Amino acid sequence: xxxxxxxILSGMRPSxxxxxxxxAGALKNYLRYQAExxxxxxMVADWHALTSEYAAPxxxxxxxxxxxxxxxxxGLDPERAVLFAQSDIPxxxxxxxxxxxxxxxxxxxxxPTFKEQQQEVTDRDLNTYGFLGYPILQAADILLYRxxxxxxxxxxxPHVEMTREIARRFNFLYVPEGxxxxxxxxxxxxxxxxxxxxDGRKMxxxxxxxxxxxxxAAAVERKVxxxxxxxxKLRADTPGQPDNCVVLALFKLxxxxxxxxxxxECRAGKRGCVxxxxxxxxxxxxxxxxxxxxxxxxxxxxxxxxTVFADGAxxxxxxxxxxxxxxxxxxxxxxxx
Length: 337
Hints:
Blueprint: E1 7-12, H1 20-35, E2 39-44, H2 46-53, H3 58-74, E3 81-85, H4 91-102, H5 105-109, H6 112-120, H7 129-132, H8 134-144, E4 149-152, H9 157-174, E5 186-189, H10 217-225, H11 246-254, H12 256-267, H13 273-299, H14 302-331
Parallel strand pairs: 1-2, 2-3, 4-5
Helix pairs in contact: 3-13, 4-8, 8-9, 10-13, 11-12, 11-13
């Protein structure tokens, strides 16, 4: 990403507090873009949350607050990035509606994430227009800010490609001979290490296996001591097979210089699992302690969060309104009074 400042758009669904997996993946990249001086728009994607939580929306507002707390606590700066709630910007809904008019139905139906979620989510009915159309809403989110780069994991690449196709179709239909109104964004494939939960599966709120950024020191210690290791290693002097050991995986992330030695001692029967956990624990506490303290400080001032949301909405709406002026002009519509 060279030349002019890249324009970044990324968002998270407010489904609860963030954990170490989010910190090692998306948040690390958010902080890097912010430090590099990119034009950053980070969105609390509450309308996206509604596509699956439409029957029980009460928690979305509180979860949005928790999400913003985590963002601020890890170092996202509302002076250097636009932090906003999607539903505060009505232009998202307007552009989504316009794009849904021109997007062929098979484009939405072929989305691999839509198919996977239909198969995997069995505790709610996802046969809704909103859920089918959420990739189009995602396209509106990106195009509304004329994002040049969209950081995604590999599973989200089809979504960005669909956004590019929608932008191309809009420009072909409405500005065939002029400069594109909606520029096609580029995907930025981000590094996102797999952070295992305490049971060995991918760390996830839904698996109840996560270490949250907001966990106090006692909760972190309890979870570390519960971590899955090698079930065949019953004693410290028993040679271990730590290939699927959660503790070793976290050593590689948070104590990389010690990881090889710890693995060798485990395989040689010279180290027990409790000793490994005790060595890992201070490293995790060192990462989480400043985040916890900053989070507690921010939580004590709820007016601060409302100010951040309000300022983010003001700045996001200014950019969104500029785009919608050009969209309406391309459609030969009246401008908003």
